[in-house]
Automatic annotation (TrEMBL):
CDD domains: Fur_like. It comes from the Bacteria. It is found in: Cytoplasm. Keywords: Cytoplasm, DNA-binding, Iron, Metal-binding, Repressor, Transcription, Transcription regulation, Zinc. Its cofactor is Zn(2+). It holds the Pfam family FUR. This is Transcriptional repressor. InterPro entries: FUR, Fur_C, WH-like_DNA-bd_sf, WH_DNA-bd_sf.
């Protein structure tokens, strides 16, 4: 499900066959407010909304939402895992080598060589993860 026009968290959860819980709803709100959030970012936001919630509960929610296809987990080399609500469109990322800022980069239009490996080893390729590295405008 692509989240270009975000549905309310409750509808997303029901549509994915998941129970609607306060922690899941708060986590989806957190990721609507902060793109490419770390688990710590989500934890802070969920705690601000709900009060006490365990670290493990937030990790469990992030795992469940990722498994359900409501979140995408990215892991830029040398950086903590990040979560985002933009899913299902095979977009890529640009990462600042200095501050770690992350931005979305749409997949190439037309011929997309990243989806045509020289040898697919018998795999049916569905997505490719391309990470562009450089310096963001603030760090340049």
């Amino acid at each position: 499900m692509t989240s270009t026009a975000p549905l309310p968290p409750e509808e997303l959860l029901r549509g994915a066959g998941l129970r609607v819980t306060a922690t899941r709803t708060a986590a989806l709100h957190a990721l609507e407010e902060t793109r490419h959030a770390t688990a710590d970012d989500v934890l802070g936001s969920v705690r601000a909304r709900l009060g006490t919630v365990s670290v493990q509960a937030v990790y469990d929610v992030l795992h469940a939402l990722t498994d359900a296809g409501l979140l995408r987990r990215i892991e830029p080399a040398g950086h903590p895992a990040r979560y985002e609500r933009r899913t299902g469109d095979n977009h890529h990322h640009v990462v600042c080598r200095s501050c770690g800022a992350i931005g979305d980069v749409d997949c190439a239009v037309g011929h997309a060589p990243c989806l045509t490996p020289s040898d697919d080893n018998g795999f049916a390729v569905e997505t490719a993860e391309v990470t562009y590295w450089g310096l963001c405008p603030r760090c340049r």
